[in-house]
Design goal:
elongated, Serine Threonine Protein Phosphatase 5, Tetratricopeptide repeat, mainly alpha, 2 strands, 15 helices, two-stranded antiparallel sheet, about 270 residues
Length: about 270
């Protein structure tokens, strides 16, 4: 018995008894003996267990994408009946539990996925994002670092962005700048990296370089985020451009009156 199987057995009772979210269902005889069986959702399931598992996981991901947790869980449960130790099924459950606020269960499932298949970089990236969302920046940094080491991972540029964001939270500004620079070396149009580099250059007192990054960011993201507008506002403030300052303040107030960035700006002005 592998270590992953032992962990699964250790957690299975807890998972099954937690609000009934993971009820292991029996496969019907027809799934094993018929050539094709029709299930709700319009998907044809073949007698090939591996193909059926892949289709169940794909369906679950579609339901996760639209926030249909019940159907996502149903398909994951059926997939797990075929392969109780499938890492992609564990990851799917982790995403469902995370979205439902069941954070302990989500972490258990992420750990099972990575214990079963450590090289499943997508799951590691999602686990790192989960840790970041929980404010566990050191742990998230370690996981994102491992994600960036997978040279074949398609999401590697954004993994460097996320690594840099972790490092900013930990006060590691030089490391963060190196991470954002690495992103731009692989994806020169990455607007998230441009935005963060703009902030770092502005904080370093290099207003011209900050503006260069900001202009590049605006070309890539015409519909600016609150953080983007705040950077434009702060660059205008630092360079003494009163007209641009007024324009960005108005845009931030009108478009994002409830944003953290707008409230932060108002608090600083009231001091």
């Amino acid at each position: 018995m592998t270590k992953g199987m032992r962990i699964l057995l250790r957690y299975r009772y807890r998972i099954q008894s937690s609000k009934g979210l993971l009820l292991i269902m029996s496969l019907t005889v027809s799934l094993l003996t018929s050539c094709v069986t029709e299930y709700s959702g319009g998907a044809s399931m073949t007698a090939d267990p591996e193909a059926t598992l892949d289709k169940r996981v794909a369906l679950a991901r579609q339901y996760i994408g639209v926030g249909d947790w019940d159907n996502a869980k149903r398909n994951l449960q059926l997939a797990q009946e075929i392969d109780p130790y499938n890492p992609e099924v564990f990851e799917g459950f982790a995403l469902v539990y995370q979205s439902m606020g069941e954070f302990e269960l989500a972490e258990q499932q992420f750990r099972l996925a990575l214990e079963t298949r450590p090289a499943l970089t997508r799951a590691r990236n999602n686990y790192a994002a989960f840790l970041y969302s929980r404010g566990r920046y050191e742990a998230a940094q370690r996981e994102f670092q491992r994600v960036t080491e997978d040279a074949l991972y398609s999401g590697r540029p954004m993994a460097f962005v996320n690594l840099g964001l972790c490092q900013l939270q930990l006060g590691q500004k030089q490391a963060a700048e190196a991470a954002f620079t690495r992103t731009l070396s692989m994806d020169e149009g990455n607007s998230a990296a441009m935005l963060e580099m703009g902030y770092l250059r502005l904080e370093a007192g290099d207003t011209d370089e900050a503006k260069r990054y900001y202009v590049a960011y605006r070309k890539r993201s015409p519909q600016q985020s609150p953080r983007g507008l705040l950077l434009g506002l702060e660059i205008a403030d630092a360079s003494g451009d009163r007209e641009a300052l007024s324009s960005y303040e108005s845009a931030l107030r009108d478009l994002y009156p409830n944003s953290v960035e707008y409230r932060s700006r108002m608090e600083r002005q009231s001091r």
